[in-house]
Specification:
By secondary structure, the chain is of the alpha+beta class. The radius of gyration is 19 Å and the shape is globular. It has a three-stranded antiparallel beta sheet with strand order 1-2-3, with no helix packed on it.
């Protein structure tokens, strides 16, 4: 990546940007209402399951989606162009989370033949097989994790909440 940059990353008031030789730019912004009126071709929201905003799906629909409306110049002639995109990623969380709702929505769209959506799921076994993780360290951590953490952090499974008197959902409410 460094070889393809024009200059060092630049820091703005609440953002970072990196200009590339192919006239592209990578911009990192905080996820809040103040980012409205910007335009992007690809938006990547990491850790979507851990709310940066009270309603992540509302933020996605009302703030982020309009930011990818503008078509890029010259793409009509490019057969490899896949259009503007919003990519959301996260570790699995509880089923009452906005991320789970979006995961189910996208899976249903895919099952109904909508090729504009894709759901890709990786778990820690994929990382072990691909040589991305230190096997002993990850296996030790997996074995010592509680069942909920195993499901979410290691197996990428969305668990139901506990049936305890004090639930995770109750703890999450602010």
């Amino acid at each position: 990546l460094q070889a393809e940059t024009i200059d060092r990353p630049k820091h703005g008031n609440a953002s970072w940007s990196l200009s590339l030789k192919n006239n592209s730019k990578i911009v990192a912004l905080p996820l809040n209402e103040n980012i409205r009126s910007k335009g992007f071709n690809i938006i990547m929201v990491d850790e979507f399951g851990f709310p940066h905003h009270k309603d992540m799906n509302e933020m996605l629909e009302k703030v982020l989606a309009p930011m990818v409306f503008t078509k890029r110049e010259g793409v009509d002639e490019d057969p490899t162009d896949i259009g503007n995109q919003i990519i959301i990623s996260s570790t699995a969380t509880f089923k009452w989370n906005d991320y789970y709702d979006k995961y189910v929505e996208y899976k249903e769209k895919m099952e109904n033949g909508d090729e504009d959506y894709d759901v890709i799921v990786y778990d820690f076994i994929d990382g072990l097989k691909g040589g991305k993780f230190e096997n002993k360290t990850v296996l030790d951590e997996y074995r010592s994790a509680d069942p909920i953490t195993r499901k979410m952090e290691y197996l990428n499974i969305f668990p139901d909440d506990t049936n305890g008197f004090i639930t995770y959902k109750l703890l999450d409410e602010k």
